[in-house]
Structures are given as structure tokens and as C-alpha cells.
């Protein structure tokens, strides 16, 4: 693809995204404190599950 066409497509897409963002309701950007706390709690739980060694979770020992 020619670089000028590629740049034009990027600019067009950027304009489309800016229009979508402007049309998006502002209230959706401001979540409640409870929702924020719940979200971060779920992130923390997910990270703990992802970083817990397999042997501690009762799975196979590493290397098998």
C-alpha cells in the first residue's frame, strides 16, 4: 500500500474514532466508587491467581 494512502486511511479512522468518542455519553466515563473498588478487587484476585505457583494451587508440579 502506498504510504500516502496509508496515511489518509489513518487520518480517516482517527476522525471516525474522535466522532464516536464525542458522541459517547459522558456519564459512562464516571463510574461509581463501588464499581471502581470492585473492579480493582477483581484485578487483584486475578493477579494473585495468575502468580500463585501451580504446586500451591494443587496442580501439577512445575516441570511436568
Explained architecture:
The structure is a single chain. This protein is mostly helical and 64 residues long. 62% of the residues lie in helices and 0% in strands. It has helices at 3-23, 33-51. The longest helix has 21 residues, at 3-23. The protein is flat, with a radius of gyration of 22 Å.
Low-pLDDT runs: none
How does the helix and strand content classify structurally? mainly alpha
How much helical structure, as a percent, in the residues? 55-70%
Largest pleated sheet: none
Q: Any idea what the radius of gyration is? A: 22 Å
SSE order in H/E notation? HH
What best-fitting shape do the alpha-carbon axes yield?
flat
Give the number of DSSP strands: 0
Number of distinct helices: 2
Mean pLDDT across every amino acid position:
83
Percentage beta strand:
under 5%
Beginning-to-end CA distance, first to last residue:
47 Å
